[in-house]
Amino acid sequence: MKRRWLTLLSGLVGCTLLSAASAADVEQVVVFTSGTEGYHTFRIPAVIVTPKGTVLAFCEGRKTSQADHGDVDLVLKRSTDGGRTWGPLELVHEEGGTAKITIGNPCPVIDQATGRLWLPFCRNNRNVLVTYSDDDGRTWAAPRDITRDVKPSHWRWYATGPGVGIQLTRGPHAGRL
After folding, report:
1. Which residues form the domain of 67?
2. How many domains does the chain have?
3. pTM score of the predicted model
4. What average pLDDT does this structure show over 155-167?
């Protein structure tokens, strides 16, 4: 009995040391800084890694305040070295110039069969749009409004994110995003 507890204790100490070593290898990197790049606040992040290994960080770029409703754009930064360094801010979608139109709640998802990156997002938390990229997020197709397909008419509010989407891998709907 004493030997069993000693073995268990040794295992726990080993796991703790491995965990501490792994934690020491983690480096914090700030991707979006509020008050920079023409935006007051960055919120609602979503991060995904493409099949080619590019890390894409999406978020809402809120131009004039941190309020949910306002002049809000959907922006992106890209990393090709595992997140150690990040490229410049890229505009994925905006509407209305300086009008109070909120474009946000990004929810990227990769179709594992095709490698296509799908990006559902919302307009004013009422309409659902989707775009896609076949080149690791460098270019985007024109957004398509899919509100009627995904939102019951009696719902007043809808949010696709925050977070990332999933693709079903089993069952009768395997492959569905």
Report:
1. 41-150
2. 1
3. 0.84
4. 91
